[in-house]
Amino acid sequence: MSQTRIKICGLTDPKGVAAAANAGAAYLGFVFFPRSPRNVSVARAQELACDVPPGLMKVGLVVDADDALLDELSARVPLDMVQLHGHETPERVAEVRTRLGLPVMKAVGVADADDLPALDAYAQVADQILVDAKPPRDATLPGGNGLSFDWRLIANRRWAVPWMLAGGLTPENVAEAVRMTGAAQVDVSSGVESAPGVKDADLIRNFCTAAKAA
Ligand SMILES: O=C(O)c1ccccc1N[C@@H]1O[C@H](COP(=O)(O)O)[C@@H](O)[C@H]1O
Question: Pathway listed for it (predicted)?
């Protein structure tokens, strides 16, 4: 049995938070991006954060956030990490990290080998990198699309900082994804939902069981 660490992202209600915590997730993610079906308000996130057991990492996902949103989150939600899921440059990643005084995880989209150098660049400035599928050009969302990429591209690759695999993971494919890539951490959102934005406790449990057994 591996010690795969799991992030359940896009939680919107106390039931989802409890399901993820009970299933053994290490990170719980909250999305602050109005276009997302998983978007939560700052007030809602503040409430949900109270339900998170101590020791679990509360991750705030933002997309090209301005300083006003970052400052509001910092003042009102007890986050443990921020996930940058937009077009933030390495300079902006460093700036956000300093501004918030929190660890920052930068999401990088991968579709082919040309996308791999960006992972090395962001690994110099972020605390963690999230290796996600690159969204299609016409996608409404920059992530959370349930799309995976060719895992062979990163098989047994290592970076200067811890990293997490994301993109189209499900209870059915997560074990294979872990075996092919050597990922020690995995992140899922749409793969544990019964409908966009609606987390399913059984799928969360099955995902965590499969990831840990990989
Ligand atoms: O989940 C969203 O709605 C979302 C919105 C904006 C940026 C990222 C988003 N989700 C993140 O995308 C990856 C992969 O998600 P999936 O498992 O393929 O659905 C994950 O990190 C989500 O947190």
Answer: Amino-acid biosynthesis; L-tryptophan biosynthesis; L-tryptophan from chorismate: step 3/5
Reference 130, options 75, 73, 190, 187; nearest CA is 187
Is this complex's ipTM strictly greater than 0.95? yes
Domain of residue 141, CATH code = 3.20.20.70
Which residue's alpha carbon is at the smallest distance from atom 7 of ligand 1? 143
| Distance, CA of 61 to CA of 50 (rounded, Å) | 18
With a 6 A CB cut-off, is 146 part of the ligand 1 pocket? Answer: yes
Collect all residues with Cβ–Cβ distance below 8 Å to 71 and sequence separation of at least 6.
Answer: 99
CA distances from 143 to 16, 75, 127, 131, 203 (A): 19, 26, 20, 11, 19
Is any atom of ligand 1 closer than 6 Å to the C-beta of 60?
no
In degrees rounded to 5, what are phi and psi of residue 33? -155, 100
Tally of structural domains, the chain: 1
pLDDT tens digits, one per residue of 47-90? 999 999 999 999 999 999 999 999 999 999 999 999 999 999 99
Give the catalytic positions in this structure. Answer: 9, 132
| Ligand 1: centre distance to CA 167 (Å) | 7
Residue ranges making up the domain that contains 65: 5-213
Distance from Cα 84 to the centre of ligand 1, integer Å? 11
